[in-house]
Amino acid sequence: MKANAQVSADKIRADFSAAMSAMYRDEVPAYGTLMSLVADVNAETLAADPHLKARLDATDSLERISEERHGAIRLGTPAELSMMRRVFAVMGMFPVGYYDLSTAGVPVHSTAFRPVGAESLSRNPFRVFTSLLRLDLIADAALREEAAAVLAARKIFTDEAVALVEKAERDGGLNAVDAARLVAEVLETFRWHDHAIVSADMYRRLHDAHRLVADVVSFKGPHINHLTPRTLDIDKVQARMPEEGIAPKAVVEGPPTRKCPILLRQTSFKALEEAVSFIGEDGRWQEGSHTARFGEIEQRGVALTPKGRALYDQLLNETRARVRPAADGSNAGDYEAALADVFKAFPDDWDGIRKAGLGYFRYSLTEKGMSVTGRNADLETAIEAGLIQFDPIVYEDFLPVSAAGIFQSNLGDDATQDFVASPNQVVFERDLGGAVLDEFAHYAGIQRASLEMCLGIVNMAAA
Length: 463
Ligand code: OOG
Ligand code: NI
Hints:
Blueprint: E1 6-7, H1 9-27, H2 29-48, H3 50-59, E2 68-75, H4 78-90, E3 94-100, E4 108-114, H5 118-123, E5 127-133, H6 141-153, H7 159-171, E6 174-175, H8 176-190, E7 195-199, H9 200-209, H10 211-217, E8 226-229, H11 234-240, E9 264-269, E10 273-279, E11 285-291, E12 295-300, H12 306-322, H13 332-342, H14 350-355, E13 361-365, H15 367-370, H16 379-384, E14 388-392, H17 400-411, H18 425-432, H19 439-462
Parallel strand pairs: 2-5, 7-10
Antiparallel strand pairs: 1-6, 2-8, 3-4, 4-5, 9-12, 10-11, 13-14
Helix pairs in contact: 1-2, 1-8, 4-7, 4-18, 7-8, 9-10, 12-13
The structure holds 2-oxoadipic acid and nickel (II) ion.
2-oxoadipic acid binds at residues 72, 74, 129, 131, 225, 266, 296, 398, 402-403, 406-407, 410.
């Protein structure tokens, strides 16, 4: 390789994700404990299910199964968000989806920066759920202004990180040396700072307005607040967390345990109280604490169509109307039972989900389909004749109600607060400096392309 050859964005992202993992395990030892629990449970699950092992072996790389799938940060200003977009673009991560969390009592709106396309996702799936603080939702005008002034004065990217991003934009990529420097420089943005940039008094006022406001405004940068490996058995990890000395949130977010998993199930351990020094009088530091950082796990299922998603939302609302999960876990069993019961209305076999138009699938030719001659078949006939097969397309995005549950359990369970729902994708995209990709259109496109390819070949043989 020539010394100056550019490295792929996928490689930069993989290196970045590995560097973040190492830094976070070092910063938050409980996260390291969670990682080993996840690795153990994944190994046990694979050992007990050779069929699953064979299937995953064919599609995923088994030795990387327990690696991080996502992380999350919270930004303070439009300028931070638009620069973050440019940083992530160099790593092959693009904004997908718009999430309004105001409805759920959290004053942010968000997107997920993620690799797009099957090949990039399989090279390295790392994504970052990225939220932008909405000071406009904070009632106290004086506090809003003070907070805005603190945010305007901070600088979350190193000069070198900015220079390297500009270079990558100019040259269409980076060579290996610059890519390694970029990873190291960007890591600085996500690092934890135990010295706040506000006084204890201001921290308390921000905290009283909303704990999330304090988390964003009080620090030098948007510390990574969690990382999330993939588990093959989320119920088991949830059940075993207490044995490892870590406290899980009350319930697993998302759909219930099913034969055919849909969307996304997530749970986390509660954020830890950490020592922080606030700016004190006469230049002395004042000791205090802050709660923000935690660990999460996820298990993903099939991506749902708008129709499937509407059914999911309806069933989730119905469940929560029956039993609202209490933060202390006291009615967790009732909630799980209600969830399982209500979700009986969602088909639980792949063909049922597909035929009802609830999920997205990738179609491919079977061996028989590849050798076919002289057929002219529509899709259903071709499937029945064993010419075309289908596999669920994995959901790679997030769920606003689940995200709110994760936020809330980690901001302290008393943090629920009502805001008037005010989604504002137009303003978000203006601040971001570009449009977010529509997740449904994206999955529909993958399905359509696979279908056209199959039917094209099957019917070409007939022509
Ligand atoms: C983000 C919470 C959302 C998820 O997995 O849904 C999230 C945050 O706490 O900043 O990461
Ligand atoms: Ni998360």
